[in-house]
Amino acid sequence: MDIRITTISENTAMTGGLLSEWGLSILIETKSLNILFDTGQSVSAAYNTDALGIDLSLTDKIVLSHGHFDHTGGLLDVLKKIGKKIQVLVHPDAWNLKYGLLPAMSAHRYIGIPYKKEKLESLGADFVLHKEPVWLTDNILITGEVPMRTAYEQIDQGLFVKQGDQFVPDQLLDDRSIILKTTKGLLVIAGCAHRGIINILQYARELTGEERIHAVIGGIHLFRASIEQRERTIEAFKEMKIEKIGVSHCTGLDASFRLAHEFKEKFFFNNTGNILYQEKGSDLHS
Question: Residue 34 pairs with which residues in a beta bridge?
Fold first, then answer.
């Protein structure tokens, strides 16, 4: 399967002329389907597609990894660029009232989708809600709800859902990733990996029947993870013999430096403007 993956919004940019902001948006192009995975925090995704010469009107589907503002805030501008009715695949819990309470905050702050559903629908969004895994093609899969199986991966304790007057811990059931089956093994693209990147990779193997994991790309939520979670994640990556690890967004610099030290040439920062290719029968390369 011929694949082109362009990171159109991320915390940092690899060249001048591109906008960067806290969040993530990745365009996946194949011969049969073009998928926009997340839309960044605000205007960066729509702006950068122009700078990169990308025609968003050729997008076939939008997939949202989960309902946080830094992955959905660009929806309004992206939909204007797409300019047609388009399916937006999302877990129902993405519409929950999501809040954050972090050490620097004095109160819970809303961090959910920043737009009314009706406004986005008026711009062409056709929301398709599902909890289960969904095959988009014979080789492209959305994970659906990821089971928590490792003992060391924990959901960030600063994330909540507002229910009435109460704030309850968010289990992030809407946290989903995209899996591509390639000739070299699985290529897994994570938005934030809130439910644990190793849980995601183990589930990807189960869903596809493919044990080989060629590459992991995207947000790996380790920037507030425990040292144990970070180190055991590295150990699991080694056991899985992953060939490419391209981190973005919420991975965190400390964790990224550890990954770079351990995996050397297999590691790279997957920044705004980064383009990856895989041609049929070949390795992933930039």
Answer: 29
User: Rounded to whole angstroms, how far apart are CA atoms 91 and 186?
Assistant: 23
pLDDT per position as a tens digit, 18-47: 999 999 999 999 999 999 999 999 999 999
Name which of 152, 245, 146 is nearest 195 in CA terms. Answer: 146
- Domain layout of the chain by residue ranges: 3-278
- Residue 2 half-sphere exposure toward CB, CA atoms < 13 A: 3
Tokens encoding 203: 């589930």
Considering the segment(s) 3-278 as one domain, its CATH architecture is 4-Layer Sandwich (3.60)
CA-nearest of 185, 201, 75 to 143 is 201
pTM: 0.96
The owner of tokens 């492209």 is 140
Cα–Cα distance, 245 to 236 (Å, whole number): 13
- The CA R_g of the chain, rounded to the nearest whole Å, is 18
Q: Which residue has the tokens 């992030």?
A: 172
Structure tokens at 112: 């959910």
Q: Is 202 helix (H, G, I), strand (E, B) or coil?
A: helix
- Nearest in space to 219 (alpha carbons), one of 172, 269, 267: 269
Residues 259, 236 contacting (CB under 8 angstroms):
no
